[in-house]
Amino acid sequence: MRPDACIKCKSFPCKDVNKHAYIVPGIELDPAKISIVLISEAAPPNRKDHYYAAGEPAFAQTTVQAFNDAGAQAASIRDILRRGVYLTTAVKCAKTAYGIATETVKECSHLLEPEIALFPNVKAFLLMGDVAIKSMNVIGSRLGEGRLIPAGSTYKIRAGKFAFRGSRLFPSYLQAGPSFNIEKSKRRMIAEDIKAALRLVK
């Protein structure tokens, strides 16, 4: 199964993104083998930096580093995928400013919702950053489950236990980008959250 064969944006209504950088993962995988879905913010401006791009894409470099920080030895995104971790973005186009409008998050959640539904055996969602958290909250509310993650600073809420249809939700910090230059404390918390999700599915 290829996610990009199932998930498509037809109208591209969002005003604050670059639709030419639109991407849904186009990898072939067995959805039954996915136990963790990691959701980060938005697609990169350059398609060559997306998780599954050839070579050494920026998203892959920082994510592999984050998994190694968590003690999950990995040399590539393929190693992470073999652990049963699927990586995607909440917003499928690249953002054009620092932030992303709430309406854009809501609109793209209509793509994320059927995307995560492709995986019947997911036990944990790693929500990397505010946009991923907001997107899952939109999905939860739309499906009648209310707000899944409470409002508040991530460092305050991340220790709580949150769930979506039987799967654990881990609110965390954004790990994907051109460099992994974030505070050591956030880097440590990202590693802790990844480790907790991996431990849950063992």
Describe, in plain words, how this protein is organized in 3D:
By secondary structure, this protein is an alpha/beta fold. It has one domain: Uracil-DNA Glycosylase, subunit E (3-Layer(aba) Sandwich). Helix content is 36%, strand content 17%. Strands 1-3-2-4-6-5 form a six-stranded mixed beta sheet, with helices on both faces. A hairpin with a 2-residue loop joins strand 5 (162-164) and strand 6. The mean pLDDT is 95.
Q: What is the CATH first-level class name?
A: Alpha Beta
Number of strands: 6
- Total domains, how many? 1
Report the biggest beta sheet as strand number plus sense, adding barrel if it closes. 6 strands, mixed
Unreliable segments (pLDDT under 50, ≥5 consecutive)? none
CATH architecture: 3-Layer(aba) Sandwich
